[in-house]
Amino acid sequence: MKTGGVPAPIRAAEALRKKLAKIGLYSEADLLLHLPLRYEDETRLTLVERALGGEPVQLELTVVHSEVQFRPRRQLVARAADASGEITLRFLNFYPSQQAMLAEGARIRVFGEARGGFFGLEMVHPRWRQVAPGEPLPAALTPVYPTTAGVGNATLQKLIGAALAEAELTNALADTLPDDLRQRLKLAGFARSLRFLHTPPPDADRDALEARQHPAWRRLKFDEVLAQQLSLRRAYLARRDQGAPELHPQDDLAARLLASLPFGLTGAQQRATMEISNDLARPYPMQRLLQGDVGAGKTIVAALAACQAISAGWQAAFMAPTEILAEQHYLKLRDWLEPLGVRVAWLSGSLKGKVKRAQLAAAASEAQLVVGTHALIQEGVDFARLGLAIVDEQHRFGVAQRLALRQKGENPHQLMMSATPIPRTLAMSYYADLDVTVLDELPPGRTPVKTRLVADNRRADVVGFVKKHVEEGRQAYWVCPLIEESEALQLQTAEETFAQLQADLPELRIGLVHGRLKADDKQAAMAAFAAGDIDVLVATTVIEVGVDVPNASLMVIEHAERFGLSQLHQLRGRVGRGRYESSCVLIYAGPLGETARQRLKIIFEHSDGFEIARRDLQLRGPGEFVGARQSGVPLLRYADLDRDADLVEQAREIAEEMLTRHPALATAHLRRWLGSREELLKS
Hints:
By secondary structure, the protein is of the alpha/beta class. Helices cover 38% and strands 18% of the residues. A 7-stranded mixed β-sheet has the order 6-7-4-3-2-5-8, with no helix packed on it. Strands 12-13-11-14-15-10-16 form a 7-stranded parallel β-sheet, sandwiched between helices. α10 (267-280) runs parallel beside α11 and α20 (594-605) runs antiparallel to α21. The longest helix is centred in the first third of the chain and has 25 residues, at 215-239. The model is unreliable at 627-632 and 679-683 (pLDDT under 50).
């Protein structure tokens, strides 16, 4: 269990080891870092006469009488006393052996909350054990650990106590932070901090401990964040050892594209294009995340990156998570690039027969840009010379899927894009293995979207609002969370809403699009809406990203309380793309739970995607927020990205220094915190 060696497995019966594995405990080192949730004070005794105070107390008692009672239900009832008074102890679940141990005259210590009962003071199901007269009290607060079924707190206390004792003997608590760094950061020593958290003295500040604000907690949280930073930074540096094509443009394709567009680049787009261009010319693979709010103009930045790859004699691939979004990208990129002489190919799961074979042949030969869905990474798809892989809405893809696209070429450069803004602390921690570019400026002409909250008993008002809106020459989306009826979730469905709106608004042209439609039908519905042949498009969240219809200036979202903040923000971003005043109406069904109420309040009050993302992180935590991107990335158990942002910044800085000046200590630190799990990060 030395910090520099392989962590020793937990010495326990096989059945217990399997249960411990459910809470991530595989080795003695894991036990050491399994930290308490809270503490109980068993270092002192309270007299019965002072037990009633609303706080758990420890009493030392002698059993006066015990019996099994059957009313109102079977229970073991014991009366016990000390010199100051008597208390009733009730046990609703018990074994015959416990009944025998609670016989008259037994000396016991009980821990629990006393309350006034019908027959006087009582405790229900206290923790208890027999003790000998004069048995000493514990010298430290009692830790309460996260547990799992079949593993009690007492078992964990015993295992962790043994692991601590063993670690002291084998020097496994040696500090992995050099003294000069630790002193510069004003952090306590590792061994001292760990011992303190497992066995705090009676006079320890319990509020600071349980709020994780104690200096001992600060040290452990810093170490956890540092392990994450070291691991991701090592992965980042390891990629620099891999060769990649140096994409130096040989013609003016990018300049010709810019000259052909009816708009100019924003300052943010120009900066992003320059950063990406510099990366593509380097001899190691780019791994850059391009993030920006809805409508920030990521597609043209990606197109210019593709132009650089094509100008250098290589291919670019552009992968998007849904067929609707991928096809929108294909049509836009084809319209931009084919007039400039670029061959653009299209691949999706819905292509069949000769058409599919022709597109596969093009990807393997003359196509310079290949756009598609997951179909791009399937077997049988070959690229002639893939130099750049672009992944849109990257959080929708898992690590393995992005890796599969990269493996279609020989270490191509990779540009990942996200319209879900990532809070700064999250970007610094979970995305530390990537270079991050932020488009923090919207193109001119984007109009602010007014957001309205409407209870579902006012749907008729919303229908009237839609009618008035269309009569003024505009178009509207109406989004529903389900396609067809579900008994479990009695929500308004897309098909029902489509039929109802046709009945309520017979003079309007109503369309329907959802994920289960055939590809041709989806394409026809979207094309008709874009052409202005449909007034109101009823849809599921397939239109969440990428759809761009400037004349659509009203978004109605049914059962908005069922959507996440990111989805609500993305959907709202489908409107406000033209010169007309735009609105987003959120219809909700009461009563609202607290989380749903908070989400709707946030989306109503804020339009900035980064602020919404920051609030979303506070509500949901990082594990849910980052989604499939994080397959293999260790979630933070102890550090809080919002409250401990300063630790993330410090750890980022120190990780670089550790890897450069103290590589052996960096390895020891990673082994302590991640063990063999660091292997998961290498993809």
